[in-house]
Amino acid sequence: MSLTFKTLGRGRRVAAGSLIAVAALGLTACQSGPDATSRPSSNAAPVTSHDQPSGDGSQSAGGSKPTGAGPQSNGQGPSASSAKETSPGGKPTGKAPSAAQSQASAMAASDRCTADQMSLRLGASDIGAGNIRYPLVFTNKGKKACSLRGYPGVSLIKRDGSAVGKPATRGGGPGGAVRLQPGQSAHVLLHTLNEGVSDTPCWDRSQLVFVYPPGSKEPMTTGSAGLRVCGGRFEVTAVEAGGLG
Predict the structure, then answer these.
(1) CA distances for 236 relative to 17, 152, 174, angstroms
(2) Which of 46, 65, 192, 244 is least surrounded, with the fewest CB atoms within 10 Å of its CB?
(3) How far from 111 is each of 47, 98, 108, CA to CA, in Å?
(4) pLDDT in tens, 183-201
C-alpha cells in the first residue's frame, strides 16, 4: 500500500515537470514570432560583395569584385619583341623590318644613278583628249651601269630662278627599278591639261624644268620649251625604261 502511494507521488512530480517544460516552449514560441524574425541575429555573418560575382567574370585577390584592369601594359603600346621580324621558320631574327632595307636590296645607294652621270632632256608633247604629256628623259652618260627607281622631284621655273606654280604631284604606281647601261635611257611623264578644258587658270609659261632625280640631292635642269600647266593639273609618273620623244 505504501509502495503504491510512493509511485503515484513520483508520477505527479514527473507530470508537473512535463507541464512546466511545455509552458516554457510555448513562451519561447511567442517571443520568436514575426517581430523576432525581422531583426537579424547578432551572430549572423554580414553579406558582403565578396559573395557577388563580377560582371566580367574576373576576380580580385580579395574576392569576386572585378579587378578593373585588363592585361598588364607598360604604357608603351606593343612590346619590342612583337615588332621583331621573324624568319620563314617562325623564329625571331632580332631585327625590325625596315622599308629602307627592302629598297636597299633592290638598289644599293652606290648603284643609284646620280645627277652628275646623267643627261636630261624634255621630249615632244603628246596631246590627246584634252591631256598633254611630256616625256622627261634621263640618259646614262657614265662608263658604268646604274639604276633609277621611283619618282623624281619636278618643278617649273623661269630663267631668273623664280618658281612657276607648284611642284608636280605623283601620279600612277610606284614602278620598279630600271637598270641603265651606259648610253641607255629611262623616262617619266609630265602630265597637264590642254588650255580651255578647265576653268582653272593656266600658270605662267616656264623656261626651265628643275629636277631632282629619284634618290638624289643634286638637281638637274633642262629647257621646258615654254611648257605651260593648265587646269591646275601637274603630275609626274615613276621612272620607266626607255626614252620617248
Answers:
(1) 117, 8, 11
(2) 46
(3) 79, 19, 5
(4) 999 999 999 999 999 999 9
Nearest to 239 by CA among 126, 130, 107, 132: 107
- Cα distance between residue 235 and residue 213, in whole Å: 15
What's this model's pTM, rounded to 2 decimal places?
A: 0.57
With CA atoms as reference, report the closest residue to 133 among 171, 94, 81, 78.
Answer: 171
Alpha helices in 68-175 (DSSP H): 99-106
| 106 or 208, greater pLDDT | 208
In DSSP terms, 120 is beta-bridged to 138
Query: How many whole angstroms separate alpha carbon 213 and alpha carbon 93?
Result: 35
From residue 231, alpha-carbon distances to 190, 205, 222, 227 in Å are 14, 14, 23, 13
Which residues in 196-232 are b (16+ Cβ under 10 Å) and which e? Answer: eeeeeebbeebbbbbbbbbbbeeebeeebeebbbbbe
Q: How many CB atoms lie within 10 A of CB 164?
A: 20
Q: Which of 179, 2, 4 is nearest to 108 (CA)?
A: 179
Q: Are the CB atoms for 229 and 201 separated by under 8 Å? A: no
Q: Which three cell numbers stand for residue 69?
A: 584592369
